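U., I forgot to send this yesterday:
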Amino acid sequence: MPPSNTPAQQLAGFIAKFDPAVARVIRAARRTLRRRVPTAIEIVYDNYNFFVIGFSPTERPSDTMFSIAAAANGVGLSFYHGATLPDPSGVLLGSGKQNRFIRLPSAAVLDTPPVEALLQAAMAQSRRPLPTTDGYTIIKSVSAKQRPRRTTR
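Result:
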């Protein structure tokens, strides 16, 4: 599929690859996070394993505070430096050196107190401040070969 003209059109096309229920969660989670951090730069990857929308104060992937990560089996909220976040409620999953995540069966999870606290902590520990201008979306990479974005029935 040739790329569309604008990042918004490309993004809509990436999300359209998913089952409708998964696509709804992706769109709702993006709306919620965009409202929370309107000046963040959205860094988008449509890679082999995952579709990812990272929220960052810069265009550098290593500055990403958190990301929506989606595959055919569902959506998650990934914290790039999650291993260093305080998690008194124990909601973070994963055991790697750096990344942690939570599952998002719906975007409503983003409004729960433990997740709101994690989002605030991730923003507070960011090495760079969020810009003061409106955020924007950049398409960082698109893999030609990808795992299926829809579940097989």
